[in-house]
């Protein structure tokens, strides 16, 4: 905008400027086509750009954990128990962020822990997305008893706190990485079903869907080609909110000893171990894993916020 | 409106029934408490005797029916571990948990209201951006870790506040603030978003064109309308906090029912686990119901519908 008005002031500038098509204006506001809006709002926001870069870096570190981590996260070096971080005078070289009570490297545990966090986050949300999408789509399309049944189940599920549902299921099934992913997926399907059904209801009466009916397309074609495609945006926005929520829930359950087994390098478990030695002055074992988790979740939240604003400008905040 | 409330009550009862059924049946399938309770040298007769006293020899459906009947009379069984009625044990711990939850909600509300309103009324300024960034960090931090960080700073380093136990108000400060941080951040975002939404509405423009001062527009017209949907969310948060406080109770050794629940998981004390789940679910559902009914009174648009 500013460049535009500045160049218009001088005629000589105008002559030199390469041709650019006149910009559409509506009540004085520049009109940007929808597909460019996303990129436009993205590039104009340094915070989002920084968060995305950080997120990519964290994912990269997590994926290549076995190359990045300085030592094996489960290796217990009893000689190096409760070693402070490297900048402390008592710090020892490969343990950059110190070690815990059993002599396990904090940094390596964080790196492998991020891998578990991301794994749980993406798989749990992915599975609940598939369940919720299928049920929501069929509920909105078929209507009738099936819809009533699904929506009652959604009501039941959503009228209980997420953490309570997850806690009860983990008590029943016991510890385990994949058990937890399944439990978190089951705990999260309802919001997808509700969102997708809402979207389907709002478009199933549209002319193009009706004409598809008239042209003799089968229910699956209509569901996938029209209803599913239109549900992608709200589902994407919901997923961006769900992933950080699930990641924190995983850490919480593991911290309580109800999540992954103790032999898994998880951030929640690392914080729990650090908490045991907090009062003896070994703060690094609990503070650094938490900071790393917060960084990861904050980056996802910033990107998720931007995504929601960009894709659903009129959306209200969801809880 | 009567129908609306009736449907809400009916739905709450349905949820309660489903919860009790799921918790009861699966917890009983998952393990044999008798094996844990009896010493390894117990004779089969003694084991059978124990099963009979606990009612574990009957079919599952009969057990569930009996359980529901007893639950309606306030009898949720006797704790395997403590030898006292499970419901009594949980209810004894309830005041401590409620104290924590109420303090948490108060802290987050008192701070979130002015910050959210300020951020919305100064939209796009550095105040707005700082509050948004701050709340983003707030919702990104796991509450139990915030608690640990608070202990480190205020108990271990500065030695200002106690790190565990319950008693004086000083004991309440750290657990309540660390638990409040997430809700505070959430509320700031919700109030800000709600205010911005309301500010675009016609009646705000009308008020402004009538010459109403900006202060009055914000506090009287906009804030009032923002708070109506906000009541719902604050109420639901209060209910879910009761379950969410478990981690904070563990970190600060707060003698609430969440800690009792965690201890009971360790020893597979099913009656207490079930009692905790049902009490928490009941309070959560009652809270939602209360909020739904309150909402009808606050929002005349719903009240005047049939």
Annotation field: number of helices of chain A: 13
Q: Give the fraction of residues assigned to helices of chain A.
A: 55-70%
Give the count of helical stretches of chain B. Answer: 13
Give unreliable regions of chain B as ranges: none
Q: Averaging pLDDT over every residue of chain A, what do you get?
A: 81
Mean pLDDT over the residues of chain B:
82
Q: What is the makeup of the main sheet of chain A?
A: 2 strands, antiparallel
What is the general shape of chain B?
A: flat
Sheet with most strands: strand arrangement of chain A: 1-2
CA radius of gyration of chain B: 24 Å
| Strand percent estimate of chain B | under 5%
| Distance from first to last alpha carbon of chain A | 36 Å
Shape of chain A: elongated
Give the structure's gist in a few sentences.
The complex is a heterodimer of chains A (319) and B (306). Chain A is 69% helix and 1% strand.
Structural topology:
The complex is a heterodimer of chains A (319) and B (306).
Chain A: H1 2-9, H2 11-16, E1 25-26, E2 29-30, H3 34-43, H4 46-63, H5 65-68, H6 106-142, H7 144-158, H8 162-173, H9 177-203, H10 207-214, H11 219-255, H12 267-276, H13 284-311
Antiparallel strand pairs in A: 1-2
Chain B: H1 2-30, H2 33-37, H3 44-54, H4 60-72, H5 86-121, H6 126-140, H7 143-157, H8 169-199, H9 202-209, H10 214-251, H11 257-266, H12 270-298, H13 300-303
Any overview of this molecule?
The complex is a heterodimer of chains A (319) and B (306). Chain A has helices at 2-9, 11-16, 34-43, 46-63, 65-68, 106-142, 144-158, 162-173, 177-203, 207-214, 219-255, 267-276, 284-311, and strands at 25-26, 29-30. In chain A, helix 6 runs parallel beside helix 13, helix 9 packs antiparallel against helix 11 and helix 12 packs antiparallel against helix 13. Chain A starts with a helix and ends in an 8-residue tail after the last helix. The relative contact order of chain A is 0.12. Residues 1-15, 25-29 and 315-319 of chain A have low confidence and may be disordered. The radius of gyration of chain A is 25 Å and the shape is elongated. Chain A is mainly α and 319 residues long. A two-stranded antiparallel sheet of chain A has the order 1-2. In chain A, a hairpin with a 2-residue loop joins strand 1 and strand 2 (29-30). Chain A is 69% helix and 1% strand. Chain B has 306 residues and is mainly alpha-helical. Chain B contains 13 helices and no strands. In chain B, helix 5 (86-121) runs antiparallel to helix 6. The chains are: A mainly alpha (319), B mainly alpha (306). Chains A and B meet through helix 7, helix 8, helix 11, helix 12 and helix 13 of A and helix 1, helix 6, helix 7, helix 8 and helix 10 of B.
């Amino acid at each position: 905008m500013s460049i535009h008005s500045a160049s218009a002031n001088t005629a000589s500038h105008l002559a030199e400027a390469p041709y650019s098509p006149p910009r559409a204006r509506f009540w004085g506001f520049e009109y940007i086509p929808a597909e460019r809006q996303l990129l436009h709002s993205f590039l104009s926001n340094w915070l989002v750009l920084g968060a995305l870069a950080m997120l990519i870096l964290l994912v990269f570190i997590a994926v290549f954990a076995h190359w990045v981590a300085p030592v094996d996260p489960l290796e217990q070096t009893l000689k190096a128990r409760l070693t402070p971080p490297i900048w402390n005078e008592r710090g020892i070289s490969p343990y950059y962020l110190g070690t815990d009570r059993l002599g396990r490297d904090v940094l390596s545990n964080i790196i492998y822990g991020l891998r578990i966090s991301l794994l749980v986050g993406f798989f749990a949300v992915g599975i609940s997305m598939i369940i919720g999408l299928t049920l929501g789509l069929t509920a909105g399309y078929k209507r009738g008893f099936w819809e009533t049944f699904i929506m009652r189940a959604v009501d039941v599920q959503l009228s209980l706190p997420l953490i309570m549902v997850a806690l009860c299921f983990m008590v029943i099934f016991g510890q385990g990485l994949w058990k937890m992913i399944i439990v978190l997926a089951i705990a999260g399907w309802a919001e997808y079903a509700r969102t997708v059904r809402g979207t389907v209801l709002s478009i199933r009466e549209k002319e193009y869907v009706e004409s598809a009916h008239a042209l003799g397309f089968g229910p699956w074609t209509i569901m996938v080609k029209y209803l599913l495609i239109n549900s992608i945006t709200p589902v994407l926005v919901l997923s961006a909110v769900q992933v950080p929520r699930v990641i924190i829930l995983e850490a919480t359950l593991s911290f309580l000893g109800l999540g992954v087994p103790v032999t898994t390098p998880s951030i929640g478990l690392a914080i729990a171990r650090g908490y045991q030695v907090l009062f003896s002055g070994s703060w690094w074992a609990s503070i650094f894993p938490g900071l790393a988790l917060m960084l990861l979740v904050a980056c996802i939240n910033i990107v998720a916020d931007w995504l929601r604003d960009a894709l659903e400008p009129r959306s209200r905040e969801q809880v | 409106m009567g129908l609306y409330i009736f449907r809400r009550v009916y739905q709450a009862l349905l949820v309660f029934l489903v919860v009790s059924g799921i918790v009861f049946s699966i917890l009983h399938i998952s393990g044999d408490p008798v094996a844990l309770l009896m010493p390894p040298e117990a004779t089969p007769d003694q084991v059978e005797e124990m099963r009979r006293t606990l009612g574990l020899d009957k079919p599952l459906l009969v057990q569930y029916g009996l359980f529901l009947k007893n639950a309606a009379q306030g009898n949720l069984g006797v704790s395997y571990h403590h030898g006292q009625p499970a419901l009594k044990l949980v209810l004894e711990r309830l005041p401590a948990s409620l104290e924590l939850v109420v303090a948490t909600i108060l802290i987050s509300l008192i701070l979130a209201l002015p910050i959210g309103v300020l951020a919305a009324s100064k939209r796009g300024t550095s105040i707005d951006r700082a509050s948004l960034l701050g709340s983003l960090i707030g919702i990104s931090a796991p509450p139990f870790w915030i608690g640990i960080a608070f202990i480190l700073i205020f108990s271990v380093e500065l030695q200002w506040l106690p790190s565990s136990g319950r008693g004086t108000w000083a004991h309440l400060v750290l657990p309540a603030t660390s638990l409040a941080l997430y809700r505070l951040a959430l509320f700031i975002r919700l109030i800000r978003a709600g205010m911005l939404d309301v500010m675009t509405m016609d009646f705000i423009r009308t008020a402004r064109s009538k010459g109403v001062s900006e202060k009055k527009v914000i506090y009287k017209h906009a804030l009032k309308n923002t708070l109506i949907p906000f009541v719902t969310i604050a109420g639901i948060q209060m209910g879910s906090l009761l379950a969410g406080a478990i981690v904070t109770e563990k970190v600060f050794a707060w003698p609430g029912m969440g800690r009792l629940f965690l201890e009971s998981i360790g020893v597979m004390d099913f009656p207490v686990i079930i009692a905790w789940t049902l009490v928490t679910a009941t309070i959560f559902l009652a809270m939602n119901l209360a909020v739904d009914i309150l909402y009808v009174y606050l929002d005349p648009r719903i009240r005047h519908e049939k």
